[in-house]
Specification:
alpha/beta, Arc Repressor Mutant, subunit A
Length: 229
């Protein structure tokens, strides 16, 4: 079987359609029809990625994501109502890796899943990649592992990918367009705040430089830059 996907949504008709499509694409799909069951499944360690619908009765998708992020960095895609920027922003602040507006096509959802799994898998030519360092930050691309001053940093898949892009270009400005393409695997959309939200989360997880600044600097109207000291 292929990668194990957890699909959390109370829309039975939609969930069956998406499950059938993803199964045909080679994925091993498990479904949960409510938030409580979804959290329990997501935290059992069997899944490669979780897809969560925001609008669910009882425990909604935002709360499901919040509970998952308290214990796990499993990649998460949120399904949000088209045009509902509030849910998207909250989801990204809580550590969602990506979001897909509903209604969406199964093909689009599959493309987003594959992009995240490709980044998380770090597939290359099989040659081990050396650790990347800048000041107190050390990143091991193959292990998807990061440390600040010798202490582990828990990053989501998207956060790790974005940080790796910045670290490979340390001391240089990286545009939001490039970060979106190389870090998130998709073009930057107009008014898309995903990059900004991810950068805010990464800053909170990393330590400060000796002078109290963040190692990730915002360069107005240009992008972001990682500095080591």
């Amino acid at each position: 079987m292929g990668e194990k996907i957890l699909l959390i949504d109370d829309d039975v008709e939609l969930i069956e359609m998406v499950r059938d499509y993803l199964t045909q694409e080679g994925f091993d799909v498990t479904t949960a029809l409510d938030g409580t069951a979804g959290v329990r499944e997501a935290l059992n360690g069997r899944y490669t990625i979780a897809i969560i619908d925001v609008m669910m009765p009882g425990i909604n998708g935002i709360e499901v994501l919040r509970r998952i992020r308290q214990e796990s960095t499993i990649p998460v895609i949120m399904l949000t109502a088209r045009g509902d920027d509030t849910d998207r922003i909250i989801g990204l602040e809580l550590g969602a890796d990506d979001y897909v507006p509903k209604p969406c096509t199964s093909r689009e959802l599959t493309a987003r899943i594959r992009a995240i799994l490709k980044r998380a898998g770090g597939k290359g030519d099989g040659t081990p990649r050396a650790a990347l360092k800048a000041g107190a930050l050390t990143v091991w691309p193959d292990k998807r592992k990061a440390e600040w001053d010798g202490k582990p940093v828990d990053l989501t898949s998207s956060e790790f990918s974005l940080l790796e892009v910045l670290l490979r270009n340390a001391g240089q400005v990286v545009s939001k367009e490039e970060l979106s393409e190389r870090g998130l695997g998709k073009p930057l959309s107009r008014f898309d705040r995903a990059i900004d939200m991810h950068m805010c989360n990464i800053r909170q997880k990393l330590g400060e430089l000796p002078d109290g600044r963040s190692c990730i600097q915002t360069i107005i109207r240009k992008g972001y830059m990682l500095i080591g000291e």
